[in-house]
TrEMBL record:
One of its GO terms (biological process) is peptide pheromone maturation. Its cofactor is Mg(2+). The keyword Nucleus does not apply. This is Protein farnesyltransferase/geranylgeranyltransferase type-1 subunit alpha. Keywords: Magnesium, Prenyltransferase, Repeat, Transferase. Belongs to the protein prenyltransferase subunit alpha family. Essential subunit of both the farnesyltransferase and the geranylgeranyltransferase complex. Contributes to the transfer of a farnesyl or geranylgeranyl moiety from farnesyl or geranylgeranyl diphosphate to a cysteine at the fourth position from the C-terminus of several proteins having the C-terminal sequence Cys-aliphatic-aliphatic-X. It comes from Marchantia polymorpha.
Length: 327
């Protein structure tokens, strides 16, 4: 696929029987594109191959050249798969080809779709290779959507769940702010068929998340993850003393902890009623209040002051306070 030593197609004996098909831009193209000779000739010959639906070794080699010039060309990727199937090609060799072109663009939809196709054809034997490959990509770009999406597809369709939660823990131990790893962790505990679902995983995950919050109180991901653990059981959420305690502890340490204030406001909105001990701690952080609506108003005021970027949102939340049950 090297461009420096490119040989024109009319100088290649193996192509002398094929009539190239030029691109048809119409008689008066408005903005004609000035293609390089290499790109123009390569595409002309690809159109000729495509027109006659030639699924041959030379056609496969030609698709590699086209991909090298434009890796986002979905038509050539599709045709390449047809040729690979027709020839019964060795998919291990196809993986090697993909390794060669990977650096062109790791965020290329067509590249990942093709890799998924290859993995599906290889079956269970591909699991280890695909998980390892995504790990390598994520080492360089921890938030690469395509790599995460591919990894989830592999787990759902080919398996390989055994070490996935440990992998998430490893990533979070390296960077607790890695929101993609938090997302993957939630994916594992809710989708891994061997774990029994969120209900079975709830207690260890709550403990894990509360420790993560204490380690990095400014990390929004862990606070969001905590909410996700109770998204289908709000009645239990408002009674969890450990959740309330971590909020109050953070406010005792730092009264400007936006995420703790935000969670308390959310809890009040779904029915949380502070105990006498909670009231005392909240009074120290927020001042005096006589009803839950007034308490929620104090939270909104504090959030407007501290979170100025979203001040209008908190002002809107204030308009919703009549929906909060008063005491």
């Amino acid at each position: 696929m090297a461009r420096d030593n490119w040989v024109p197609f009319n100088e290649r004996p193996e192509w002398e029987d094929l009539e190239p098909v030029p691109q048809d831009d119409g008689p008066n193209p408005v903005v004609p594109i000035s293609y390089t000779r290499q790109f123009r000739e390569t595409m002309d010959y690809f159109r000729a191959i495509l027109k006659k639906d030639e699924r041959s070794v030379r056609a496969l080699k030609l698709t590699a050249e086209v991909v090298g010039l434009n890796s986002a060309n979905y038509t050539v990727w599709h045709f390449r798969r047809l040729v690979l199937e027709e020839l019964g090609s060795d998919l291990e060799e196809e993986l090697s080809f993909m390794e060669e072109i990977a650096d062109l663009n790791f965020k290329n939809y067509q590249f990942w779709q093709h890799r998924r196709w290859v993995a599906e054809k290889r079956g269970a034997v591909a699991v280890r290779d695909e998980l390892k490959y995504t790990e390598i990509v994520l080492q360089d770009d921890a938030k690469n959507y395509h790599a995460w999406s591919h990894r989830q597809w592999v787990l759902l369709n080919l398996g390989g769940w055994d070490g996935e939660l440990d992998y998430c823990s490893k990533l979070l131990s390296q960077d607790i702010y890695n929101n993609s790893a938090w997302n993957q962790r939630y994916f594992v505990i809710t989708k891994d068929p061997s774990r029994g679902g969120l209900k079975s995983m709830l207690e260890p995950e709550v403990s894990y998340t509360l420790m993560a919050i204490q380690e990095a109180p400014t990390n929004e991901s862990s606070w969001r993850y905590l909410r996700g653990l109770f998204k289908d059981d709000k009645a239990t959420f408002i009674t969890r003393s450990d959740v309330i305690m971590v909020c109050l502890q953070q406010l005792a340490d730092e009264q400007s902890c936006v995420h703790a204030l935000n969670l308390l406001l959310d809890l009040l909105s779904i029915g949380y009623e502070p105990s006498q001990t909670d009231c005392s701690a909240l009074g120290k952080a927020l001042g005096t209040w006589s009803s839950l609506v007034e308490l929620a108003g104090l939270l909104c005021t504090r959030l407007e002051e501290l979170d100025s970027i979203r001040s209008r949102y908190w002002a809107w939340r204030r308009t919703m306070l009549p929906t909060v049950a008063s005491s």
